[in-house]
Write a structure and sequence with these properties.
68 residues, mainly alpha, rod-shaped
């Protein structure tokens, strides 16, 4: 009877640990998805900023060449 109680207690602890690990893995995956989306947004912003600056530089270069 004592062995059966210890076995049930051991299984309950194992199930609890597995349940907690499942939640942690799910949260890590969700966090990784959010972070990757954040990185994609930052790259998109950087590209747009670069193109905007490049356009401004080209326009100022054309103005300078026209003044000569």
């Amino acid at each position: 009877m004592k062995i059966l109680f210890i076995l049930i207690l051991f299984l309950a602890i194992c199930l609890l640990v597995l349940y907690r690990l499942k939640d942690r893995v799910y949260l890590n995956k969700k966090t990784k998805d959010v972070l990757s989306q954040s990185v994609k947004n930052e790259i998109k912003k950087d590209k747009e900023d670069f193109l905007r600056r490049q356009t401004l530089f080209d326009q100022s270069l054309k103005k300078a060449q026209n003044k000569k």
